Each structure stands twice: as structure tokens, then as C-alpha cells.
Amino acid sequence: MNEAIPWLSLDSSTFPDLSTALTDPNGLLAFGDDLTPSRIFQAYQQGIFPWFSDGDPVMWWSPDPRAIIDISQLKINKTLKKILKKQEFTVTVNKSFKQVIEYCADAPFRTEETWIVQPMLTAYNALHNEGKAHSIEIWLEDELVGGLYGVAVNGYFSGESMFYTQSNASKVALVYLANLLQSAGVNLIDCQMLNPFLESMGCIEVSRAQFIVQQRRAKNINMPDNFWLPRQLTLI
User: Fold this and answer.
1) Same structural domain for residues 122 and 217?
2) Domain's final residue, options 64, 94, 112
């Protein structure tokens, strides 16, 4: 497998064509040793993301099919509607990115080995400082109890991970992210890979070709200058 998949060095200027990604494991496109913020952002611009375990080389992925949420089809069940109506949580954007990603790396519910290893923490915090990675935070009084983070390229948002310490807090984070994006005319959240939680929220799988079309459309949406400004959010 190592011979079939190219190695990206610091001198490599481009990623391989997405059509060359493996089907098993699904979407593996390239290996590399470059996890700089510029390389990561270059990847997201093309619908590629890094995902690897501690001790492995950096692995770059473009799975087919791809998991997405059509925001207009987001599923909010009765329990979640009641929670949103109560407004017991305070929700913010970009108030505590570093804390969110650290919680995601060591989420209380996680049983498998995390892929959010120290090089990833360093790189995504740098991306956040550059205004390219963003977080949604859920607070109960002054305690951070849930959240998510991801990378944005104009109107294209690719979610990376989420966490909760209070029931439904990650669901609330997803609802507020969807509402925030929709306020700017965005109707897509890239979820990368489907799982039961995302499926329960309305996430579906589409072909890589369909995803790229939708991603390009979202990337062409210019966001307001203050869109990711740290602040408290309210549902519109």
C-alpha cells in the first residue's frame, strides 16, 4: 500500500488527484510529514483532511461517499426542541477554541484512541489564530460542557470533532452552527465520515463528485467580515 500512495514532503506543492484515493481504506489519498497550517488549509480547500494515530505518518483522506448535512434537512427531535426552547445553555463562537479542541481530544465518552494527537492540536490552534479554524462552545453557567470545531473556507465548513459532558450539549452546538451558517446563506456542513450520532441529526452520504460540486458552491459564498467574531450566539 505504501508504494501505491504518494508521499508528500515539505517540497510537494500539490495533492494527488482525488480520483486516485484508495477504496480500501476508503479515501486514503497520500502520506506525508507536512502538517503545517498552510498544508492543512490547502487540503481543506480541495475537500481533503488529515486523520492519523499517534506514531503514524500524516495521512490525507478524501472518502467516497462523503458525509454531509443539508442544513435545511437538519433533524431536531422533540427532546432537543424542548432543550433549545428552555435556553438553559449559553452558546458562543470562537470564545474558547483551545479548550474545545483539548476536550475533543480527550472526550469523556471516547473509547477508541484519539486522532487528535499533539501535532494536530498544535496545527489547528495555529489555524485558529489565523482565522481559519473555528469553534462553537456550549456553557452551563461558567462551565464549558460541550462544543465542536472545524475549518472554514469562505462558506464551506468542515467539522472535525465535537464533545459533551452534559447530555445533548453537542447536539445544541450542531444546531447553533447550522443556524449561524444558514444566516449567511450557507446550506452545507461537511461531516467527512458518517456515524450514528450524525445520522440521527440528518447527516447523509453523497458521492465524492456530488460533494465537490456542493463544496465549490459553498466556497464561493463570501462571508461577512465579522462572521466568526467571538461572541454569544442566539438562534435566528
Assistant:
1) yes
2) 64
pLDDT per residue as tens digits for the range 16-56: 999 999 999 999 999 998 999 999 999 999 999 999 988 89
The confidence score (pLDDT) of residue 112 equals 60
Q: What's the rounded mean pLDDT across residues 229-234?
A: 98
Q: What is the Cα–Cα distance from 47 to 158, expressed in whole angstroms?
A: 8
Given CA atoms 108, 109, 111, 113 in this order, what sign does their dihedral have? negative
Give the type of residue at 109. Answer: F
Rounded distance, CA 57 to CA 86, Å? 46
For residue 147, is it left (φ>0), alpha (ψ between -120 and 50) or beta? left
Instruction: Dihedral sign for Cα 180, 187, 152, 26, please.
Output: positive
Which residue segment(s) compose the domain that 38 sits in? Answer: 7-64
Please state whether 154 falls in left (phi above 0), alpha (psi between -120 and 50) or beta: left
> Is 205 part of a structural domain of the chain?
yes
How many distinct structural domains can be found in the chain?
2
Residues 99, 168: one domain? yes
Residue 131 binned pLDDT confidence (cut-offs 50, 70, 90): very high
